[in-house]
């Protein structure tokens, strides 16, 4: 055997002995960058502002339930985190559909983001005035339209004020852009991922299969237990009581800490998912009354690694107003 052949033999032997086991143990995966938690604390936002974080965009998502007399726009103008712009959940929507704040078309979303000068690769921090309530909905919205770096401020404006930070009056404007890169050709190239939005026909299709255990797909009803169990009337007039057959109930507040204004820890959310029998490896669709608070479970489950997440955007505002298919007349709900 010549010297060249011996060298090739030694190199090949070394590859089999050393390199292959390393690859099998996902050696290279050890160096994969861990994804950041989309939930950030007030201290982190303080540092971002202090250090003039590049391309930082702060978004006020103030929203209240229909029976709450407060005006979200007025509340934003009364006090907001300095530099924050207001994201109007009811206006940045498909207003041609007779249900609350349905996801807008690409064109409507892009037009509004251009007005606000929020680009898909900016660092976007969402917060609300109740702690954690409407901000996950806007987090979900930005995410499914292709934004790459969206965070939710834990505790929202109450937590910001509790640490003694100043607030701004009369709101910010789109021109309040500092330390920003120049726009690129695809800066506002938002496009919705339709796989992340479920419609009523999809829900009607999968519900009986879930009940019959023919499909591993979790539907989470984020309303209160009494609403899910049809023990109380719906707050919106004209809607029947009940739930989607095959759904499980996890009230959105179960994802929040005891005081109700901050998110539970990752460990606590994992324990909650296990307790409720939620397999994060299976597809998960959430709904609530109008498609807003359902995003809190989606946000929480995303934090613990769930990937196949979708929102039934019409939620009970639609489902409770539309007659169910004939399978419901066959006592399908009793199998739930």
Structural commentary:
- With 336 residues, this protein is α/β, with parallel strands linked by helices.
- It contains eleven helices and ten strands.
- Strands 1-5-4-2-3 form a five-stranded parallel β-sheet. Strands 6-10-9-7-8 form a five-stranded parallel β-sheet.
- It is globular and about 55 Å long.
- The relative contact order is 0.13.
- Mean pLDDT is 89; it is low at 16-33.
What's the SSE blueprint?
Elements: H1 3-24, E1 39-40, H2 42-50, E2 56-60, H3 72-78, E3 85-86, H4 106-116, E4 123-127, H5 135-144, E5 150-153, H6 156-162, E6 197-198, H7 200-211, E7 218-221, H8 225-228, E8 248-249, H9 266-276, E9 284-287, H10 295-303, E10 309-312, H11 315-319
Parallel strand pairs: 1-5, 2-3, 2-4, 4-5, 6-10, 7-8, 7-9, 9-10
Helix pairs in contact: 5-10
Give me a quick take on this structure.
This protein is an alpha/beta fold and 336 residues long. 32% of the residues lie in helices and 10% in strands.
Sheet/helix structural class = alpha/beta
- As a percent range, the share of strand residues is 5-15%
The number of helical elements comes to 11
What is the straight-line distance between the termini?
74 Å
Chain-averaged pLDDT: 89
Radius of gyration from the alpha-carbon trace, in angstroms: 24 Å
Descriptive labels:
336 residues; alpha/beta; 5-stranded parallel β-sheet
């Amino acid at each position: 055997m010549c010297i060249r052949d011996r060298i090739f033999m030694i190199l090949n032997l070394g590859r089999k002995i050393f390199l292959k086991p390393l690859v099998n143990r996902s050696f290279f995966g050890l160096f994969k960058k861990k994804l950041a938690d989309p939930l950030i604390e007030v201290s982190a936002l303080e540092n971002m502002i202090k250090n003039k974080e590049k391309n930082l965009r702060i978004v006020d998502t103030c929203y209240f339930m229909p029976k709450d007399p407060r005006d979200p726009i007025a509340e934003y103008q009364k006090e907001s985190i300095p530099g924050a712009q207001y994201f109007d959940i009811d206006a940045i929507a498909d207003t041609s559909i007779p249900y609350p704040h349905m996801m807008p078309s690409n064109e409507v979303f892009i037009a509004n983001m251009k007005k606000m000068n929020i680009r898909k690769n900016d660092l976007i921090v969402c917060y609300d005035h109740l702690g954690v309530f409407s901000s996950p909905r806007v987090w979900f919205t930005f995410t499914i339209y292709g934004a790459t770096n969206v965070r939710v401020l834990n505790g929202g404006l109450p937590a910001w004020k509790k640490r003694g930070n100043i607030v701004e009056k009369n709101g910010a404007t789109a021109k309040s852009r500092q330390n920003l890169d120049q726009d690129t050709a695809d800066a506002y190239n938002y496009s919705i991922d339709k796989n992340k939005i479920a419609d009523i026909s999809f829900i009607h299709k999968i519900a009986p299969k879930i009940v019959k255990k023919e499909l591993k797909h979790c539907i989470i009803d984020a309303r209160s237990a009494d609403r899910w169990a049809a023990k109380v009337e719906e707050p919106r007039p004209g809607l029947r009581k009940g739930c989607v057959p095959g759904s499980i109930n996890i009230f959105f507040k179960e994802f929040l800490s005891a005081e109700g204004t901050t998110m539970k820890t990752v460990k606590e959310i994992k324990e909650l998912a296990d307790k409720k029998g939620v397999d994060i490896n299976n597809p998960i669709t959430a709904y609530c009354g109008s498609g807003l608070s359902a995003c809190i479970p989606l946000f929480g489950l995303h934090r613990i690694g769930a990937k196949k997440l979708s929102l039934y955007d019409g939620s009970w505002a639609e489902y409770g107003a539309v007659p169910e298919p004939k399978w419901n007349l066959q006592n399908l709900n009793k199998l739930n």
